[in-house]
Amino acid sequence: MTGHSNSPHGGRRYDRTPLVVTWELTQACELACDHCRADATPDRDPNELDISEGISLFEQIADFGDRTPMVVLSGGDPLERPDLFELLEGATEAGLTPAVTPATTPSLDRAQLEALSDAGVNRIAVSLDGASAKTHDSFRGEPGTFETAIRAARQAREAGLSIQVNTTVTAQTVSELPAIADLVEELGAAMWEVFFLVPVGRGVELEQLEPERAAAVTGWLYRQSRDAPYRLITVEAPFYRRVANEMREPDEGSVTVGTTGAGNGFVFVSATGDVYPSGFMPLSAGNVREESLVSIYRESDLMQQLRDRSSFDGPCGECPATESCGGSRSRAYAATGNPTGSDPLCPWAVSDHEYRFEPTDPFAETTKTSSRS
Question: Is the pLDDT assigned to residue 41 strictly greater than 80?
Fold first, then answer.
């Protein structure tokens, strides 16, 4: 089986080195958000990677060599790790500059943000799934999280940290996107990461978009990205690249959009060291306690299969855009139990390629036009 070396991002070979490594430091979190992938709990798992194992993991990440991956420390809530700042010191000593995705709890205060900045963190991510306390807190099922996120974003910038805003797209949140886009700009965020729901964890209870509307949303995102002062990327919506290519103007040249795939540019390490193609595909390719992350990513059968697009089944395997898109492997697995199956959110896949994309307004019936639409 051969690795797939399609590299839409700066010449990086994704079969050799991921763009992003995310380590779930812990599943512990004070919150219990309705859509949580991790099924977070109040208590830490006693089998979490300890401080020495965490530092070893950072050294393994550095061993990827040139073009060292971006490192994201996630959870749960990373602030639930009492050794977080020792881990950050270990990351810095390994030559890494980590980003952190803290939960929006009262622990995320100005002092904590300044300490993260002093420890060498370059970016934090905050989640905004609505543009107001009413809509965001209703989706999250946790009152007060909107105000905490807004305050944390502003204080983080004052502390010298770069800001990323993460947004989950579901049938409930999609109408909020134009107003969230305005808020992302107002906050001075460097990046807006728009995640198209994969129904895992507590997220299985949430309603996804219909495929044609999902494509229309990516069309709107592409228009948004042309003039936005922040970088816009999608997660688990690789058909965004196909939509962008269909929408580009003749003088735009080739289109580069931010989207990676499970095991193909992205890899996830769980709190207990299991290595997954993504946090939304609970199929283990190995464990960093037993084998180097580098060899697991490059050589495991699962990772290689996900990069070998000739192995894909159904419409995704027959699609002329497979090389540039490939469908969400995580969503295919969640829907079918087969990681090489077809992505049920892709309108081309569900229509046996009969779908013809038209750049329509995905919010026409649900929200007023944003000032940036």
Answer: no
**CA triple 324-255-367, angle to 5 deg:** 95
Q: What is the pLDDT of residues 281-316, one digit of tens each?
A: 999 999 999 999 999 999 999 999 999 999 999 999
Q: What is the chain's alpha carbon radius of gyration, rounded to the nearest angstrom?
A: 20
- Please state whether beta strands 99-100 and 70-74 pair in parallel, antiparallel, or not at all (unpaired): parallel
Phi, psi of 151 (to 5 degrees): -60, -45
Question: Tokens representing 49?
Answer: 């990677």
Structure tokens at 283: 């199929």
Q: What values do phi and psi take at 89, rounded to 5? A: -65, -40
pTM of the model: 0.89
The residue whose two tokens read 């971006």 is 70
Count of beta carbons in the 10 Å neighbourhood of residue 346: 27
Say which residue the tokens 């309705």 belong to: 34
Classify the C-alpha dihedral 228-233-236-238 as positive or negative.
positive
Alpha-carbon distance values, 310 to 7, 313, 316 (Å) = 17, 8, 10
According to DSSP, the β-strands at 70-74 and 162-169 are unpaired
Report the CATH fold assignment for 20-299: TIM Barrel (3.20.20)
**CA atoms lying within 13 Å on the CB side of residue 310:** 5
pLDDT digits (tens, 9 = 90+) for 163-205: 999 999 999 999 999 999 999 999 999 999 999 999 886 667 7
Could you state, in order of their start, the residue ranges of all structural domains in the chain? 20-299
**The token pair that represents 200 in the structure block:** 């895992």
370 band by pLDDT with thresholds 50, 70 and 90: very low
Q: The tokens of 178 are what?
A: 């134009």
